[in-house]
């Protein structure tokens, strides 16, 4: 073993030890500032959370102001699974999230993709927490943006003023949040599409030339595509334009003393591109047998990883559909009576005690009490019962249900987050924000997995460089990059959150509200389901399924089935031979050439049916010829 091998081995051991301290060493917690009975702290969101560890007092209302200084789907939402809170964070905006730390302990929070993590440390109420002078470090509220406001468990822009207590306030906030998140996601999809197309166009010529020349030993490959400078010119835009979202996220994650799949990709591609750049610009620095470039590796890895992110973002675009459909049930306007005059206003302007007029066919804006009038209200969206429920003075009606027949005059009883629809929306959001037990295990594993992969890559480089065959440096570099790229834990942190969002969303669209991710995970153990009423399992829409005639009329198949009985009569059941011949009526529509009339069986008409002469459509039918009126032929 020569001196260079010893130096590499010692450096690798020191690097692995440093990694352990960097990723798992103690981290300083920042305490929230207490003012006016509320503890506040500002958190900067830029590739991670700063501060990452937040210290709070138990039982004191908390307002965390998230200053998001980036775009992209990764940090577009913050989730507190143990507190059942999920809030959207619009790009380049300050958003407040209000929490109620009722229990002491340590609770984690993460981005919506479960790739960026933070920690809440809630000290018991008896413990006095020292403030570390965070007022000058971005903690607290305000800072030139005014007093922020938000609803518990949701988010609002920091400069939006006082929280609205108007009807549908929670639903309107959810509308704005979902619309902003959908618009941001569509913008990210468009940006990723452009970067993937550019990467594919520039990488394919280099990949084609290298694979054809190196693998298939083709002699017809143009020499210009094998030139190092040409490959550098083609792959450099892929490295810095196509791969920019990966590099930015990866380096920021490392700066926050955490690591994710982007960190692994960034380290691997930077190593491959940097080595190839040295070979191209200063080949004399390396031995002649170590002057191989890896530009095509860099381009292929970045393009494929970004293409996978594009597919992932498109898949996540549908996870908020359940919330959007629930929000769509909310009425947009209300007809309120003020000073004896009916005025149509937005539903967010309705307050408790307002007198509303509900016309037939309109949605009921808010939960109310009927003052006068009678009607049938379709409450299937809440109860599942297919038949409308009768309502009269003194009865309660639910917001977003449909008034079907009569007019009602009602008084608003519950508005904003107190309405039943707002509670249903909140329940779905809390279910999507919860964390399944299996996800806790995945988070624990992924927290150690990425640093372990980096350490293994360093050890791989040292082993190949020390005891590997020639060219040792090239084989060591390629092996280390292979470990970093192949070991990306993409699915480890994403599979469970995506499954929870899709599962709870599909359940909400089907009328099934799932309480939490834990309930969804343990649902496969159910062996008995108890239903309290038939409306729980009905479709909510009556439909004609069968005809049961009474008295002397025979049962006939509906004409739309197109069936024919064994006796040959279209649409009618066969008549037993021993039974007396009753009157029978065919359900077959009238043919253009005449009408079919049915009577008692006769010699001329064994089945009791015959055709009448063709008659013009404009000629009215005689009363005696009406359907089923007469048996004369």
Structural notes for this entry:
The chain is of the alpha+beta class and 633 residues long. The chain is built from 14 helices and 23 strands. It has helices spanning 3-24, 169-214, 223-226, 228-242, 244-255, 261-281, 295-316, 321-328, 380-383, 420-433, 437-467, 472-486, 490-509, 517-521, and strands at residues 30-31, 33-35, 38-45, 49-50, 53-57, 62-68, 77-80, 85-88, 94-99, 105-111, 117-123, 155-157, 333-338, 341-346, 355-358, 367-372, 375-378, 389-391, 396-397, 402-403, 408-414, 596-598, 609-611. The strands form 5 sheets. It has a 6-stranded mixed beta sheet with strand order 1-5-11-10-7-8. Strands 2, 3, 4, 6, 9 and 12 form a 6-stranded mixed beta sheet that branches. Helix 5 (244-255) packs across helix 6. It is elongated, with a radius of gyration of 35 Å.
Give the topology, please:
Blueprint: H1 3-24, E1 30-31, E2 33-35, E3 38-45, E4 49-50, E5 53-57, E6 62-68, E7 77-80, E8 85-88, E9 94-99, E10 105-111, E11 117-123, E12 155-157, H2 169-214, H3 223-226, H4 228-242, H5 244-255, H6 261-281, H7 295-316, H8 321-328, E13 333-338, E14 341-346, E15 355-358, E16 367-372, E17 375-378, H9 380-383, E18 389-391, E19 396-397, E20 402-403, E21 408-414, H10 420-433, H11 437-467, H12 472-486, H13 490-509, H14 517-521, E22 596-598, E23 609-611
Parallel strand pairs: 1-5, 3-6, 5-11
Antiparallel strand pairs: 2-3, 3-4, 6-9, 7-8, 7-10, 9-12, 10-11, 13-14, 13-15, 15-21, 16-19, 16-21, 17-18, 17-20, 22-23
Helix pairs in contact: 1-11, 2-4, 2-7, 4-6, 4-7, 5-6, 6-7, 6-12, 8-10, 8-13, 10-13, 11-12, 11-13
């Amino acid at each position: 073993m020569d001196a260079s091998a010893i130096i590499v081995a010692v450096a690798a051991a020191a690097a692995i030890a440093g990694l352990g301290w960097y990723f798992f060493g103690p981290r300083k917690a920042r305490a929230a500032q207490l003012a006016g009975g509320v503890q506040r702290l500002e958190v900067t969101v830029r590739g991670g959370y700063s501060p990452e560890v937040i210290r709070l007092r138990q039982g004191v209302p908390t307002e965390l102001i998230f200053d998001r200084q980036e775009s992209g789907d990764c940090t577009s939402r913050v989730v507190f699974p143990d507190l059942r809170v999920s809030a959207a964070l619009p790009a380049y905006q300050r958003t407040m999230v209000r929490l109620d730390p009722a229990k002491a302990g340590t609770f984690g929070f993460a981005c919506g993709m479960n790739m960026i993590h933070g920690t809440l440390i809630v000290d018991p109420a008896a413990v006095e927490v020292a403030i570390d002078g965070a007022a000058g470090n971005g903690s607290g509220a305000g800072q030139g943006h005014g007093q922020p406001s938000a609803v518990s468990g949701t988010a609002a822009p920091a400069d939006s003023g006082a929280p609205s207590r108007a009807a549908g306030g929670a639903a309107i906030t959810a509308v704005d949040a979902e619309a902003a998140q959908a618009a941001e996601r569509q913008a990210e999809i468009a940006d990723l599409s452009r970067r993937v197309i550019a990467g594919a166009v520039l990488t394919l010529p280099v990949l084609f030339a290298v694979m054809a020349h190196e693998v298939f030993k083709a002699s017809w490959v143009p020499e210009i595509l094998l030139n190092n400078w040409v490959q550098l010119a083609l792959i450099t835009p892929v490295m810095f334009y196509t791969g920019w979202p990966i590099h930015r996220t990866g380096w920021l994650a490392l700066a926050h003393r955490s690591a994710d799949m982007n960190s692994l990709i960034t380290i691997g591609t930077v190593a491959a591109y940097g080595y190839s750049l040295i070979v191209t610009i200063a080949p004399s620095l390396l031995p002649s047998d170590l002057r191989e470039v890896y530009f095509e590796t860099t381009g292929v890895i970045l393009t494929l990883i970004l293409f996978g992110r594009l597919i992932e973002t498109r898949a996540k675009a549908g996870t908020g559909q359940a919330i959007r459909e629930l929000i769509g049930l909310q009425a947009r306007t209300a007809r309120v009576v003020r000073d004896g005059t009916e005025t149509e206003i937005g539903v967010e302007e309705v307050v408790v005690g307002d007198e509303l007029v509900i016309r037939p066919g309109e949605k009921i804006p808010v939960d109310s009490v009927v003052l006068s009038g009678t009607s049938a209200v379709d409450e299937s969206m809440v109860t599942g019962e297919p038949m409308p429920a009768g309502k009269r003075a003194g009865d309660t009606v639910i917001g977003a249900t449909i008034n079907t027949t009569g007019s009602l005059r009602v008084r608003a009883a519950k508005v904003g987050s107190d309405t039943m629809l707002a509670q249903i929306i909140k329940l779905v959001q809390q279910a999507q924000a919860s964390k399944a037990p299996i996800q806790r295990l995945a988070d624990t594993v992924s927290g150690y997995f990425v640093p372990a992969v980096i350490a293994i890559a360093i050890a791989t480089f040292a082993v190949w460089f020390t005891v590997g065959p020639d060219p040792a440096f090239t084989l060591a570099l390629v092996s280390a990059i292979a470990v970093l790229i192949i070991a990306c834990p993409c699915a480890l942190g994403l599979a469970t959150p995506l499954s929870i969002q899709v599962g709870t969303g599909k359940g909400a669209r089907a009328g099934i509200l799932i309480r939490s991710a834990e309930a969804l995970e343990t649902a496969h153990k159910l062996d008995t389901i108890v239903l309290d009423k038939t409306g729980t399992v009905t479709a909510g829409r009556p439909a004609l399924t069968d005809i049961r005639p009474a008295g002397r009329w025979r049962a006939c198949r509906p004409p739309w089935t197109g069936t024919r009985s064994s006796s040959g009569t279209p649409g009618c059941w066969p008549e037993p031979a021993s039974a007396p011949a009753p009157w029978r009526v065919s359900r077959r529509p009238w043919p253009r050439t005449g009408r079919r009339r049915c009577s008692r069986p006769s010699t001329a008409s064994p089945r009791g049916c015959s055709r009448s002469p063709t008659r013009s459509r404009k000629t009215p039918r005689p009363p005696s010829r009406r359907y089923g009126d007469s048996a004369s032929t």
